[in-house]
Design brief:
Blueprint: H1 2-34, H2 39-63, H3 76-99, H4 101-108, H5 111-123, H6 128-152, H7 155-182, H8 188-207, H9 216-244, H10 246-252, H11 255-268, H12 274-298
Helix pairs in contact: 1-3, 1-9, 1-11, 2-8, 2-9, 3-4, 3-7, 3-8, 4-7, 4-11, 5-7, 5-10, 6-7, 6-12, 8-9, 9-10, 10-12
Length: about 300
Amino acid sequence: MQADDKRLSAGVLLALGSAFFYATRSVLVRVGLEQGAGVRELVAVRMFVAAALFLATDLYLRYRHKRVGTGLCKKPQMFLAAAAFSTAVVSSFFSVDLIGVSMAVVLIYAHPVFVQLLARIFFGEKLGVQKALTLVAAYAGCLLVVGPRMIEGDPLRTLVGGGLALTAAACYAVYQLLTQKLSSSESSVSIGAATAYLSLIPALALWHFDPVIPTDSALVVGATLGVVSTYLPLLMVIAAINRLGAAQASMYSLVGPVLAIILAAVIFSETMNPLQWAGSILVLASGSWLMLMSKRKKSPVT
């Protein structure tokens, strides 16, 4: 029992650490964009640096005779997971460019809701009335976040940016569910490495070496994204999923948007109106309630 408690505690810390590092992603993307870097350059440099780091880690562990999964990149499930991850990365970067950090992170961090929904659709997990109502509340919150900007600002830009953010959320949910299945037989290093390797291919295709040499801002910000917002959180979230499961691990990531919104307000002076704040709170509260219900379900009856 004590070993299980330590495993769960480690999972919680890993999930929170991953959320902290992921929270810097949208902020760094906007910093890069404001310094003249393009989305395609940032994605390519980010994934190149992440892949290089995972390769170095993989080689080091092999040299030390530690177990690292072999042939993982050839598994269809890993291809699907990497495709979902790549789609989420590109969608999230473009959404920040279109609607800013605060709105993007709130919508992207609706992915725990997608985890619950997709787990019900594809794995037959029970939803129940409470969870169903919570999902409805979360999506209503998303509408409150996007709605005022569509009325007051550029409707098309907001619609596309919001749609891309929700696409990123759904793809992150798919990635979490697929890696949960893989983590029972593969190490977090091997899954993270396979994700980085396979995601590098579409990233380079999107960039297609135009310009041939990335700008200085793209190199600096992209490299920081590769280390802080990709390599470290990928290792941590996969290890957290292995200890907690995808649904519970994803719930702890909800601390991320809070930090990102604070950073966006301090660094970029981004603000949201009362309706958008209400929507943000509704999304975050819905995710927290889902987490509490999941923990309650797993707790023994005394």
